[in-house]
Design brief:
With 110 residues, this protein is mainly α. The chain has one domain: Orthogonal Bundle (Cytochrome Bc1 Complex, Chain D, domain 2). The chain has helices at 2-20, 27-45, 59-62, 67-76, 92-104.
Length: 110
C-alpha cells in the first residue's frame, strides 16, 4: 500500500511541475510575440495576415483547424514548404498563445 501511495505522489508531482513550467505570459512577452507575428510571420502570411506566400492567418481561415495542429506547425514547420520551425525561438506555451490569438483575431502591433 505504501508503494502505491508513493507512486501516486510521484505522479502527482510530475503533473504539477509540468503545469508549473509554463507560467502565464506577461504583457511584455505578449507584445514581443505580437511584433514577431506581425513582422516575421507577416513577411510570408501578409502584413495584415490575410495571405501572401503563406496562407491567411485570420479567424475565418483558422476556425476549423485544431489548435494542437497549428501549434505543431508553428513549432516544427512544414517540410517541403517555406514554413520554418520556430521551436528554437518559441516555447509551446508561446505557440499556443499565438494560435489562440490568431483564432480569435490577432491584435495590432503596438
Amino acid at each position: 500500500m505504501q508503494t502505491l501511495t508513493t507512486a501516486g505522489t510521484v505522479i502527482a508531482m510530475a503533473f504539477s511541475s509540468a503545469f508549473a513550467a509554463s507560467p502565464p505570459l506577461g504583457p511584455q512577452r505578449q507584445n514581443e510575440l505580437v511584433h514577431l507575428v506581425r513582422q516575421d510571420c507577416g513577411s510570408c502570411h501578409g502584413m495584415q495576415l490575410r495571405g501572401g506566400l503563406g496562407p491567411a492567418l485570420t479567424p475565418e481561415t483558422l476556425k476549423d483547424r485544431p489548435a494542437d495542429s497549428l501549434v505543431s506547425t508553428i513549432l516544427h514547420g512544414r517540410p517541403g514548404t517555406a514554413m520554418p520551425p520556430w521551436k528554437n525561438i518559441l516555447s509551446e506555451s508561446e505557440a499556443d498563445w499565438i494560435v489562440d490569438r490568431l483564432q480569435k483575431g490577432f491584435p495590432d502591433a503596438r
